[in-house]
Amino acid sequence: MRTTIDLPDALYRRAKLEAIHRGLPLRALIEVAVARELSEPTSDAPRFRPEDLQLVKPQPGLVIDPTKEQLDDWL
Known about the structure:
Strand content: under 5%
Radius of gyration: 24 Å
Structural class: mainly alpha
Number of helices: 3
Shape: elongated
Oligomer: single chain
Number of strands: 0
Low-confidence stretches: none
Order of helices and strands: HHH
Largest sheet: none
Distance between the termini: 44 Å
Helix content: 40-55%
């Protein structure tokens, strides 16, 4: 798929020189770099998945009104 991106001049020059050094078209270097960035986990923490959340419904008539100190303890 074709797309257009804006790169800072200095980054473009570095990427272009690296592509020349590797004997690749700039397009191929950018494709490899984006694929590598997306394949690496961003942290040691597991990725958030909305389906992992459980829906909790409060009991009828139950009032939850924690104090600031209780909220701090929970966090």
